[in-house]
Amino acid sequence: MNINPYAQTPSTIRFEWGPAGARTIGPGAAIVAVVDVLSFTTSLTVAADRGIEVFPFRWRDERATVFAAEHRATLAVGRSQVGPANPVSLSPVTIRAASGVERLVLPSPNGSTIARILAEQGATVIGVSLRNSRAAAAWTARRLGTLLPPAEAQKSREPTASSPGPGELPVGSPGPGGLPVGSPGPGGLPVGSPGPGGLPVGSLGPGAVAVIAAGEHWAEDGALRPAVEDLWGAGAFIAGLVAEGVLGLSPEALAAVAAYHQANADIRAALRDCASGRELIGGGYPEDVETAAELNASSVVPLLDGERFRPAVS
């Protein structure tokens, strides 16, 4: 049996970039989190906080206009197109200020496109930003727990040596004396080995979590530009999963957590200084960056339900 080495299938928590990454690690995952901090998923959480249903859409052209009309929804325009006739854009600031909006079509070549790709695969898709990373992690942990019979779910939540270590270091990272944090597990079992009920030691339950950082695109050739703010957002969410007891991180997921922990010393300054943040500030949208930096300000988890994102039920 050939196993795709890029699918990260031995790991419970997986991390990749862009549409190709979504197609690679998304299939078979119990939950897929899309992260696009500047600005799709930040705008998505602001809309969800206000009870606005959001329709992700791949294209920002006449097709989006037709789609919005068919769904009796407001169409978010480009930032530079905002005016009295079109008051809402991808900017979270305009969504927060809008009145009378119940349904919103949010075109985005990055986050929206990935969400639609995943929906076509039949995935359970949530939107994650720095604003709701903790809430999204807690919801995901609860959702994974419901996949187990109650007795086994309780066993999987019992504290293990694979819980977050001193300073909330991610499992597998160097700890005191250079030993990996979380090893060995209870009874001497190593993390990831079969535990009670056949569950891996330290895991919450069956099913993987795939985390997709949207990234940006280079203007010259359209190639993916890994955007560090999405790495931080993904790392914040994954760190939250670890804190909830969901373990089994791929090396890629561990790298995202490490990046987040470093940036979290001053996440607001980090967002202002990264390339995407500088681009928005230079374009006259500094408040968009400030909104994205509202770490854990939202308790709402947008869940893709058919064509639209709605707040997930806890």
UniProtKB/TrEMBL annotation:
Molecular-function annotations in GO: 2-phosphosulfolactate phosphatase activity; magnesium ion binding
Top-rank taxon: Bacteria
Signal peptide: none
Biased composition (Gly residues): 174-200
InterPro entries: ComB-like, ComB-like_sf
UniProt-recorded name of the protein: Probable 2-phosphosulfolactate phosphatase
Region Disordered, residue ranges: 148-200
Pfam families for this protein: 2-ph_phosp
Compositionally biased residues, Low complexity: 162-172
